[in-house]
């Protein structure tokens, strides 16, 4: 009995000790389970020179406090947000970067009047506060595009096409850097890029490129044709030009029918000779 009682006493003490340890360590267990996660960067893939770029950095701190958010272009830091400091934001001098401090904060940084020099890789570094100081870094590329305003120039060999003919056309994009991509469509069906050449040109703002594409297409469907040329850069900046072509139908039947002279239509002597030749062939 004594042995059993003693055993039961030790069991009770052990159970109480385990319960106390669990309660005491619970905050630390929770602290280990909650941490900085889901850090995500959102940067414009492509943006026109002179426009405003909004760079976002989202994250989930769970129950941790934010220590700092830092932004880098390449390896150079240019913006920092620290909630425990006043002011909360700091801008580090970096050539050509114009930070709008009033619009920048813990989740975004705003760059005004972007220049081609800002093309490159951007990193967002997020750190949780003590005691973990858990840190994550994410990165993305932003391309700054120099481009001339306007739509692609579309040229066709003929204004009309009939069944069985070969349609030939070329399209020129507005000058840009990087060069634009060209995609062809006929009756809203994508044909591809065609034969591409890129022509460089030097301008006061720097070197630009004009993309020229040509296609040959066998007309296998009767009726009207919608020809479209689409110019784009990184599938973000672009424009398009399209033309509608009527079918080139045979005119023989209309030529042979008598015309109403009151409509003001007359046949020239040379045209009468052509009509006579056609009649002779038919007979």
TrEMBL record:
It is a single-pass membrane protein. InterPro entries: CD80_C2-set, Ig-like_dom, Ig-like_dom_sf, Ig-like_fold, Ig_sub. It comes from the Eukaryota. It is found in: Membrane. Keywords: Disulfide bond, Membrane. Pfam families: C2-set_2. Its main location: membrane. PROSITE patterns: IG_LIKE. GO terms for cellular component: membrane. SMART domains: IG (SM00409). Residues 27-134 form the Ig-like domain. This is Ig-like domain-containing protein.
